[in-house]
Amino acid sequence: MQELHKLTIHESHKLLKEKKVSSVELTEAILKHLNKVDAKVRACMTVTGENAMAAAKAADKAISKGKIEPLTGVPALIKDNMCIKGVRTTCSSKMLENFIPPYDATVIEKLKAVNTVIVGKTNMDEFAMGSSTENSAYFATHNPWNLDCVPGGSSGGSAAAVAIDEAIYALGSDTGGSIRQPAGFCGVVGMKPTYGRVSRFGLVAFASSLDQIGPITKDVTDCALVLNVIAGHDKRDSTTAALDVPDYTKALKPDIKGFRVGVPGEYFVEGMQPEVRQALEAAIKKLEELGAVIDWNVSLPHTKYALAIYYILAPSEASANLARYDGVKYGYSYREAGTMWEAMEKTKQYGFGPEVKRRIMLGTYALSAGYYDAYYVKAQKVRTLIKQEFEEAFKKYDALVTPTSPTVAFKIGEKTDDPVQMYLSDVCTLPINIAGVPAVSIPAGMVNGLPVGMQIIGKHFSEETLLRLAYAYEQATPWHTKKPAA
Amino acid sequence: MPQRGVIAILCDVVNYETVIGLEVHSQLLTKSKMYCACSADYASALPNTHVCPVCMGMPGVLPTINQRAIEFTLMTALALNCSIPEHAKFDRKNYPYPDLMKGYQISQYDAPVGVKGYLVIDVEGKKKKIGITRLHLEEDVAKLVHRNTPEGETYSLVDINRAGMPLMEIVSEPDMSSPEEARLYLVKLRAILQYLGVSTGNMEEGSFRCDANISIRPVGTTEYLSKVEVKNMNSFRAVYRALEYEAQRQRDALASGERIVQETRGWVDDKGVTVSQRSKEYAHDYRYFPEPDLPPMAFSREMVQKIEAELPDLPEKIYDDLIAEYNLPPYDAEVLTQSKHYVAYFTTSIGLKSSMSTSDRQKRAKTISNWLLGEFTRLLNAKNVKIEEAKDKVTPENLSGLIDLVDKGTLSGPLSKTVFEEMFNSGKPAGIIVEEKGLVQISDTSEISNISDKVIAENEKAVTDYRAGKEQSLTFIIGQVMKASKGKANPAVVRQIILDKLGGK
Predict the structure, then answer these.
(1) Among the four residues A180, A204, A398, B20, which has the most C-beta atoms within 10 Å?
(2) Model confidence at B153, in pLDDT bands (50, 70, 90)?
(3) Which of A12, A92, A136, A154 is catalytic?
(4) Strands across the sheet containing A260-264
(5) Known catalytic residue at A395
(6) Do B289 and A237 touch (CB under 8 A)?
(7) How much is the ipTM here?
(8) Which residue in the list A178, A319, A333, A405 is annotated as catalytic?
């Protein structure tokens, strides 16, 4: 018997289309495997088995009528900050412990329209604030490659789940690296599309000008297949681009001859794990072998400010985005208060975890009268400089290649007492959100039994270029076929 | 020596002038709310029935801009002679309150839709320009209803229907120097909004709200002293009274050596006073920053010119037209143009007489204006009905028919008021009412002569007084004849007959 849970999207699709397997069989296999391994990995926040079986039956019915798309009948997991009508959406926060949205996020509508099978919601850092999924108000997720290690974050649940085959694919969200860094730590493919490529409607906001939803998949082909479905203009999200969505699978060609690839030195930071550096250098040489023209001496000098301005801009926006959780309308509500103000204050005091409160405080401070110009306005100016720096670079290069993170996955508990060390784990991914450009992380080596991620960055709306480079590399290397022991 | 003391004191008396600036918030007459597709027509709806995840501020939802609201705001900005910047943007105004669904209001901070405009008011026959600082768009908040349990505990209910309604804020310069000027400004502004069709301008229902900033300063100085913000004024009369009160309160305070505190005060209408609400020490830091969910807006010059070209006629122009075309007195033209609905009624009514000669039309125009500003307005006020509603009963055709009857002599002046009231109540045309009630004017001299004889016989004293030179007695006697004829006698005929009988002039 074939182990169905190990399939990719394109493999599942072939079997479903040839009617060699039904969506019900595939979904049952996934749920069975998920129940077996999730006790250790703890990737899932909510498993919606009944909904999944109903969706699988609906998918089989559609398939029997000849209505089959690449994602039809394929089981998926969704990060717990995307709203699914009627399904609890917690953002891994006590604040939304029992929040059941009466609407679907646009990406969920799109997935449902092609009869994908959603099997549940994945654990994350509370409100997507964190880099290890340890900030979940409920439990930490473990890295399937080494259960003592973190899976990265904040989409750690989605990345760990895909790595250990709890789902064929997953959706994550990325504000400063929250798809790519966990994808790198877990040895899967994770893409943050261009800001405005995928609708944010129904994604619980952390930092509105940086948040973007993207695929977390087992290989590059799957990444293109998911992006095909979720990308596109949405009239409910004014920040989405009114551009046509190409068929991203057309970019999946092994030939990258003549592609100009730059390697920015600033991303090989001090304190970087030497083995990660070696793995990256080897990976870049592989790209060169495949025909890419490598420039090893690119400089993006404003990179060093990215972390600082990220921790001004993201918390500023978050301080407003999280103001709605006041216990009046939904979610956690402190009921023992004597006054309205006390009720609102205590709701926030007990409903939010420490990292969320820290960022609300940071953002509130940065926006305060007397500090606004020195922090928020200055940070926006630097943001413009970083954007321009990328634009200049992309006049010369088709893509830039960097490590996804300076290290492989670290130990659970290792950085929880030191927020700055934790923040530094996103140092290679933050600038990409600040510039709004797309980037993908793909497996590019193993260090001490843990995966290494390579980040490929392109100009706005150049997802096809990224997928082509990623696909060529993937086809020429064995990393995507490596699996953690179940 | 005491005299010198008096002079010294007189020299200390400072003359103060009042400085007033107004902030008006007007809901816009769009079909849907500002940032979502919910119907804006919630006036008679049950609480929390015109709501959706967007206006309820649920997690993950995003706003989208109501383009009609932008157009309405651009129209208003242009009508108020504002310049329209090339770009405008929305900002988040952060403050926690249970009526604010997202914990921030999407408003506009430093890039509003319109800046630097003005409107002209007529102060005792003189034109005065009142500067408009800025005009921007934002969203309304939910309505809180405060209740008590039978045990006396207070609690509040939230009605989210109003949350997310488009709200246009119009900020004036501190250019008004009396409560009357403030009132004139509001009347004019409301008329403009109504002519544009962007607002009902209804203050009592809260779709048109006004806060005032008021301070006083020694005449001849240009600095602003501590200003007081006055809120809770729910009618034009309340604005006027509150500002009168506040201007006097500040003068009294300075006269008794007190300092005026910069603060917000609320108008308490039934007591006729303002009371301190909060001092500025507790002022919010709103932490404005650009709204990341809404891209900045660009206003192309072509678009602005197109909107400007399509603006409807505004009160200024209609005022001039009324005087030029119908020779109406300025007072009539001014009062008529204060309401778009009055002008519409007037225009339809006079339009029915397009075949008249110019002089007859002008005479008719004045008669229509008299009815509108007199009896019609009196009844509207007395019955608390709006002309938009009453015009279905007293149609312009019906009023025209009534005036025709009076002109022909079929109906007397006094009786025409009775008929008008009946028209107002029943919606019937004047001719039918006259027929039904037998109100045709008596011009038959023999009938009036008989009634007059009777009245003269019964009022010997008045007759004697008149003959002794007391003119009022004549009016009294004529009145008695009119009364005896149940108002049906033709007053001119009555007057002539009485004069004949009493041997008058």
Answers:
(1) A180
(2) confident
(3) A154
(4) A44-47, A117-122, A75-79, A169-174, A212-217, A189-192, A439-447, A450-457, A399-403, A260-264, A293-298
(5) no
(6) no
(7) 0.96
(8) A178
Contact A83 B295 (CB under 8 A): no
Q: Residue B271, exposed/middle/buried by CB under 10 A (0-12, 13-18, 19+)?
A: exposed
Residue A372 with chain B: CB contacts under 8 Å? 287, 289
pLDDT of residue B279: 54
Distance CA A369, CA B314 (A): 41
Element (H, E) at B123: strand B114-123
Q: How confident is the model at residue B10 (pLDDT cuts 50, 70, 90)?
A: very low
Contact of B289 with B92, CB cutoff 8 Å: yes
CB atoms within 10 A of CB A370: 7
List the catalytic residue out of A79, A121, A348, A459: A79
Q: For the residues B401-408, what does the mean pLDDT come to?
A: 85
* Chain A closest-CA separation from residue B109 CA (Å): 14
Residues B232-262 have pLDDT tens digits of 999 999 999 999 999 999 999 988 888 888 8
Q: Domain ranges in chain B?
A: 6-285, 315-437, 445-502
**pLDDT tens per residue, range A12-54:** 999 999 999 999 999 999 999 999 999 999 999 999 999 999 9
**DSSP type of residue A45:** E
Residue B177 tokens read as: 């120097």
Positive/negative CA dihedral, A320, A321, A324, A327: negative
Residue A468, number of CB atoms within 10 A of its CB: 26
Q: What is the mean pLDDT of residues B359-371?
A: 89
Q: How far apart are CA A384 and CA B185, in angstroms?
A: 44
Annotated active-site residue A20? The verdict is no
Q: What are the two backbone dihedrals, phi and then psi, of residue B3, each rounded to the nearest 5 degrees?
A: -60, -40
Strand partners, B147: B155
User: How far is A100 from chain B, CA to nearest CA, in Å?
Assistant: 10
Best A238, A316, A325, A375 residue to mutate vs chain B (most B CBs within 10 Å): A238
Pick the CATH number of B445-502 from 3.40.1190.20, 1.10.150.20, 1.10.10.410, 1.10.1760.20: 1.10.10.410
pLDDT (0 to 100) of residue A486? 63
Residue B4 — very low, low, confident or very high, per pLDDT cuts 50/70/90?
Answer: very low
* pLDDT score for B339: 85
Q: A317 near A363, Cβ under 8 Å?
A: yes
When pLDDT is averaged across residues B424-448 and rounded to a whole number, the result is: 79
Task: Specify whether the CB–CB gap between B192 and B80 falls below 8 A.
Answer: yes
Beta bridge mates, A143 = A146
| Lowest-pLDDT choice from B45-59, B316-330, B409-423 | B409-423
Residues in chain A: 486
Are B131 and B117 a contacting pair, CB within 8 Å?
Answer: yes
Model pLDDT, residue B2: 45
CB of B331 within 8 Å of any CB in chain A? no
Q: Which residues of chain A have pLDDT under 70?
A: 1, 486
Which distant-in-sequence residues (6+ apart) come within 8 Å of B430 by Cβ? Answer: B398, B401, B402, B405, B411, B416, B419, B420, B423
Token pair listed for A405: 């993170």
Q: Where are the alpha helices (DSSP H) in A18-121?
A: 23-41, 49-64, 106-113
R_g over Cα of chain A: 21
Chain B contact present for A146, CB below 8 A:
no
Residue at A281: amino acid letter: E
Strand pairing of A189-192 and A439-447? antiparallel
Chain B contact for A237, CB < 8 A? Answer: yes
Distances (CA, A) of A53 to A71, A79, A142, A165, B411: 16, 19, 27, 18, 85
**Is B51 within 8 Å of chain A by CB?**
no
Q: Position A147: which residue type?
A: L
Percent of chain B with pLDDT strictly greater than 70: 96
Q: What is the pLDDT of residue B479?
A: 87
Q: How far is the C-alpha of A319 from the C-alpha of A359, rounded, in Å?
A: 7
